[in-house]
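Course assignment 3, question 2. Fill in each field.
Student: A.L.
Task: Predict the tertiary structure for the chain below.
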Amino acid sequence: MVTPERGIELANEVGLDLVEISPNAKPPVCKIMDFGKFKYEQQKKDNEARKKQKIVEVKEVKFRPNTDTNDYDVKMRNVFKFLENGDKCKVTLRFRGREMAHLNLGRRLLERVAKDVTEAEIGKVDSIPKMEGRQMVMMINPVKK
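Answer field:
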């Protein structure tokens, strides 16, 4: 163990800086190094880590209670594409006018979407279908490969 004054003295003799590595340790740990070079390398590590991270976006696909089979297939193709790219998918079912009297049709459609996604093993339902005003919403997360 060296006193802080002696550490600064040793660092000055070599022409480097005395850098505190872990201040919370008992006693605090210091290192003799070039502080400018240390900061530069730390910055490069941070930038490299930032490049490698994936930003998850939420993509939305909108359905209607009376969506026909071909339209359903096209929209499901989009859902699969979003999930394959690693994005979350928000499936929205919008009700208009008298369609509000047939919420069971909408729920059945969303359950069909959930079944197709889980059978393809490409995603899993994050939140079950729930009503928000005049629309029913369900979130689907991608499955990690």
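Instructor remarks: DSSP finds four helices and six strands in the chain. Helices lie at 4-14, 35-52, 69-84, 103-119.
Grade: pending
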